[in-house]
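so my prof wants the structure for this chain in the tokens format not the other one, which i didnt know existed until like an hour ago. anyway here's the sequence
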Amino acid sequence: MKALSIRQPWAWCILHGKPVENRKWWTSYRGPLAIHAAKGMTRDEYEECRDFAARLGLTVPPMADLPRGGIVGRAKLVDCVSRHPSPWFFGPNGLVLADVEPTPFVPLKGALGLFDVPEGVLP
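here's what i got, hopefully its the right format
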């Protein structure tokens, strides 16, 4: 399975209604995708996302409550677009996600871009 590493709290937002993940790069990949919460997160990153999410009616948990450094969910990557009607879309490209669901936390080192989850890591 492919995975995408996303910094918190953006990964949490995806699990709670953010339908598109912004990237500078394009992908032709479509299919199952593990959502990986990156290990790194600064206070500024947290506060920027928390405040943005609040304007959209989403209350982000405290920094200390966000799991990091592992798989936190799964989704289907259904499209890659340069425009999207969601207020979560900033561009220049957006990975459109569907059938998003949280999963039990599985510690795993992340990587840049789409990366392969080793066999046997996910239940």
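also thought this was worth mentioning. The chain has two helices and six strands.
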